[in-house]
Structure prediction request, 460 residues.
Amino acid sequence: MPDLLQLLETLLANPWVILGIKLSVLLILLPATLVVGYVELKVMAHIQHRLGPMYPGGFHGWAQTLADGIKFIQKEDIIPRAADRMVFAAVPFLTMMGAALAFVVIPVGPQWIIEDLEVGIFYALAVSSIGVIGVLMAGWASANKYSLVGALRMAGQLIAYELPLVLAAAAVVMQAGSMSMVDIVESQRPFWLFNWPQGLSFVIFMVAATAEVVRPPFDMPIAEAEIITGAFTEYSGMRFAFGLFAAEYIAFIALSALATTLFLGGYLPPIPALDWEPLRPLWFLLKTSSILFVLMWVRWTYPRLREDQLQRFAWKVLVPLSLANIFFVGALKLTPII
Amino acid sequence: MPEGYFGDYFTFGMFAGLVVVLVGGTLLLARLVRPRVDKDEKLSTYECGVDPIGGGWTQSTVRYYIFALLFVIFDVEAVFLFPWATVFEEIGIFAFIEMMIFIAILGLGLVYAWRKKVLEWI
Prediction:
């Protein structure tokens, strides 16, 4: 028995094994999208006084999104004759990368992080904008008018909302004095559920994040009633599932996790007395799922905005507000209140 | 396995590689199980069921090119903001005032664009 334990210990000390364990986070992401997708179906159904999926899997249709995924794999994959095949095929890889890469720096616990980069938050914001390139490529490579309109809308929306997002994050960095995600969480001690000097940053961040992941009320780029599915009109089968669905949900989870880390104290418990190491991932998951739930709620409460309203809101409200917020946080930081 | 500074990049690279493998692997799996029925009509561009009129790569107005210019300016500002934000507490009031002047100048630019009615989506 001691031999076995010793073997296990040496095995766990091997850097390659550690790396393998850390990278397996990615394998949790795809099932996580299925779960979040299912919960969203249920939440939207109940908000609209429906039951939602009830049959697949038996109990309250729990296997609905799994069945969707299997269906996607079986579906024929069509690349239109007019399309630019190479660029068309590269899109799912890019959108997935843009969505998943941010997870490298998200701390589920002080040790439970793939890599605590010193430029953590900066990195997360940088990689999450890779997806835009994928969408633009999809829109152009499809050689379809709807795709082109969708991609142009997407680009316009993402550049408009990138700014408030980044400026809100900068305000958090000012308070923490570090860009490392673990430092940002630790700077929020002593902690009771909300980091109040960052209240305005939180609101700005959440609005901009909703727009960044193209969820209603900011989903004009894929508005199905106007432009089919925007940039992904010509996509089918698994390419569609990755390019749009999986990427959207993973980005959705990533941004909620980012918001949790930046504003809600990440893995810190709501009451300092409960700070027990093994429970930390639980607090993190709880906070992240609350944000996910609130965003689903918002989705089924507000109707879609118009393109000009969206741009006006970003440039005339959010950008000036986030600049003022930086001033506010800086002044607050220099006065000895906090 | 690389350590330290390059170790970070290494992990990042492995993660990115794994994303590619995961997506590529699933697409490959899908290729094995999905049917393939070739039909010429399927390969035409989708345009609500009728034959497409003209090409897909048509001329279209990029309405927001001025937004894009503004975005570049503000994004560069954001890049400057981050290193400042990490150290400003140590430097104190001097750094704060200096950065506020910088932001005020950019804010003036935004006000100018606003007054020039550039921020209208037409």
Observations:
- Residues 79-333 of chain A form one domain.
